[in-house]
Write a structure and sequence with these properties.
This protein has 397 residues and is an alpha+beta fold. The chain has 14 helices and 13 strands. A five-stranded mixed β-sheet has the order 5-6-1-7-8. It has a five-stranded antiparallel β-sheet with strand order 11-10-12-9-13. A three-stranded mixed β-sheet has the order 3-2-4, covered by helices on one side.
Length: 397
């Protein structure tokens, strides 16, 4: 049986790079994608601003303290989704075995593609070249016999990097790397591990399983296997997003159920369009509300039939909102998400549902218009007009 060849391809500073691609005046400049300085969060940071310590998930206030000269641009999710679709189309020219991890990264199993396109390194270079010429973006890639090593490799020479791990060389490749490169060992866990004498992945590989379980719990056994280069997970081409969501953080708190319900309509519309683009529907609708004191509450409902259109998602969300305590409470964030996702539109019922059919047709038309004009707000409901950019300021995600 031939050795497995897996690629992990990861776009470089994806959101920021798309903004720089689409606005030439931003190229070569320190760009931060995110919300307002008051309450926003950094969604992406260009490579020009990273030397100042700016990273994704950092508060915008902290980012601007570190890089006051940075240019802040609001996110444009529709542009990122369009670019992602082009990138994934490139992936599928080389193999049908593509496992998406997010909009900007995926695993590819190219084992069976080598007879057509060459070895893993050759395929990775071809993919990177096509992304650069066709999408005008750069990607970094890792090539390895297993998923874990491929993912680690793709991150080592960013941006525009390519790192190849030889067959039979996974353990040797991983051994000298710092423990922070190990999945599941983040900023909070790493100092504790280092205090116990674990500085590199090689240290983890040499440790007894019990020692790692004592520190990391049941995850410890898996960490031990990965550190030794033992990863037999397949690329799952059937993998789909576990949930699709939209949320907003407001500069001015919302008051009252009516104001919150109208934001849920906007979220439901964005979620529905993403489902429509993916040719999917969902059984479970979840809403979340964060109050001004940062208390977070969520409610969910699983429906008898999967839904795909704005109105159905919004009706479920408003029903859940009635179970939320809103009296005398100020709200800083609202969100809607769906899960229990299935590929395909909702099934036809025994008796025709003219209203549902009409809603799906409207959803399809508005989605096509948004895609044609590359503008998620090209079509909106009249009741949402004062939630447009000229209205209350918000951070979308």
């Amino acid at each position: 049986m031939p050795p497995t060849t897996i690629l992990h391809v990861d776009m470089d500073a994806f959101y920021a790079s798309v903004e720089q691609r689409d606005a030439p005046e931003l190229r070569g400049k320190p760009v931060i994608v995110g919300g307002s300085a008051r309450r926003g969060v950094v969604l992406a940071a260009s490579y020009e601003v990273r030397p100042f310590g700016v990273r994704s998930a950092m508060s915008m206030a902290e980012a601007l303290r570190r890089a006051p000269h940075a240019i802040v641009v609001p996110p444009h999710r529709d542009r990122y989704e369009a670019a992602s679709a082009e990138v994934f189309a490139v992936f599928r020219r080389y193999t049908p075995l593509v496992e998406p991890l997010s909009l900007d990264e995926a695993f590819l199993d190219v084992t069976a593609s080598r007879s057509l396109f060459g070895d893993g390194e050759t395929i990775a270079r071809a993919i990177k070249t096509r992304i650069r010429t066709e999408v005008q973006l750069t990607a970094s890639a890792g090539v390895a016999p297993c998923k874990f090593a491929a993912k680690v490799a793709s991150d080592l020479q960013k941006p525009d990097g390519l790192v190849v791990v030889a067959d039979g060389g996974v353990a040797a490749f991983l051994a000298p790397l710092p423990i922070e490169r190990m999945w599941g060992i983040g900023p909070k866990t790493a100092p504790r591990m280092r205090a116990l004498g674990f500085a590199t992945i090689g240290d983890l590989a040499r440790a007894e399983d019990k020692a790692l379980v004592d520190v990391l719990g049941s995850w410890g056994e898996h960490v031990a296997r990965l550190a030794r280069g033992l990863d037999d997970r397949d690329v799952d081409a059937a993998h789909a997003a576990q949930s699709v969501g939209a949320e907003e953080t407001y500069d001015e708190d919302l008051r009252g159920a009516e104001a919150v319900a109208r934001t849920l309509l906007d979220h439901a519309s964005r979620v529905a369009r993403r489902l429509m683009r993916a040719g999917a529907s969902a059984y479970t609708v979840t809403i979340k509300v964060k109050y001004s004191d940062f208390t977070l509450r969520s409610r969910r409902v699983t429906l008898a039939e999967p839904v795909q259109d704005t109105d159905s998602i919004h009706r479920a969300a408003v029903g859940l909102l009635s179970r939320m305590p809103l009296a005398d409470r100020r709200v800083r964030l609202t969100g809607v998400s769906v899960s229990g996702i299935v590929v395909g539109a909702p099934p036809r019922t025994l008796l025709p549902d003219a209203r549902a059919d009409k809603q799906r047709k409207v959803e399809a038309v508005t989605t096509r218009i948004a895609e044609r004009f590359k503008n998620e707000g090209a079509v909106t409901r009249a009741s949402l007009l004062d939630l447009a950019p000229s209205g209350p300021k918000m951070r979308r995600s």
